């Protein structure tokens, strides 16, 4: 029997001074803090003895930049997989909120009528299908070792919900998928045996106490 671990890494903090929902828009890069997060994840994996043999990323810039330090640390090329891309969202490019955001305009309200699909974007089941297919491909590529897949909060969370046989509809405020967090899937042969969540850059989150020299 072989054990393979596929880590789903959410990208680091993004430079987004206008606070819009950037979704799949191009040219959204990591902030300086996001770059630090990406570098710290690479160190965490390497110093923790993780046997990374494949680094795969969403085609979006923020995911590619998050993947780069780990790929460099392990001497690997980044493999781009379109299936890891952010979820499609009608509100992409808009501010999203009740005050000055999109929600104050009645023309957008029909997009909110069905939270179970959801009606404002890519269906949850479609996200599950593409994310699980990307995980399967990475597991085959790194069989007996570990793979790192860099993606985005919603696709990672929905993929995890499906693996854990939980409902896909959820409260977005309760997602356990922080910036630069790892959702690690352990497989024995092709059978999922464990799902673990970790935050290797937790001390970099707003309000956290910074450790000197960390």
UniProtKB/TrEMBL annotation:
Classification via CDD domains: HP_PGM_like (cd07067)
Highest rank taxon of the organism: Bacteria
Listed name of the protein: Phosphoglycerate mutase
Gene Ontology terms: cellular component: cytoplasm
InterPro entries according to UniProt: His_Pase_superF_clade-1, His_PPase_superfam, PGM_Phosphatase
GO molecular function: phosphatase activity
């Amino acid at each position: 029997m072989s054990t393979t671990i596929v880590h789903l890494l959410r990208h680091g903090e993004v430079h987004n001074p206008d606070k819009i929902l950037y979704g799949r828009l191009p040219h959204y890069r990591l902030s300086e803090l996001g770059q630090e997060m990406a570098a710290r994840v690479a160190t965490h994996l390497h110093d923790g003895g993780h046997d990374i043999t494949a680094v795969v990323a969403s085609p979006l810039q923020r995911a590619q930049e998050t993947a780069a330090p780990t790929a460099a640390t392990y001497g690997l090329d980044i493999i781009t997989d379109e299936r890891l891309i952010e979820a499609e969202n009608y509100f992409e490019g808009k501010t999203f909120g009740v005050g000055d955001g999109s929600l104050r305009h009645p023309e957008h309200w029909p997009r909110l009528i069905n939270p179970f699909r959801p009606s404002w974007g890519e269906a949850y089941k479609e996200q599950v299908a593409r994310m699980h297919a990307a995980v399967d491909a990475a597991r085959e590529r790194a069989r007996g070792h570990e793979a790192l897949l860099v993606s985005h909060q919603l696709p990672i969370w929905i993929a995890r919900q499906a693996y854990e046989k939980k409902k896909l509809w959820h409260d977005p405020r309760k997602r356990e998928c922080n910036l630069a967090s790892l959702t690690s899937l352990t497989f024995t042969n092709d059978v999922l045996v464990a799902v673990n969540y970790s935050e290797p850059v937790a001390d970099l989150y707003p309000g956290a106490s910074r450790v000197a020299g960390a």
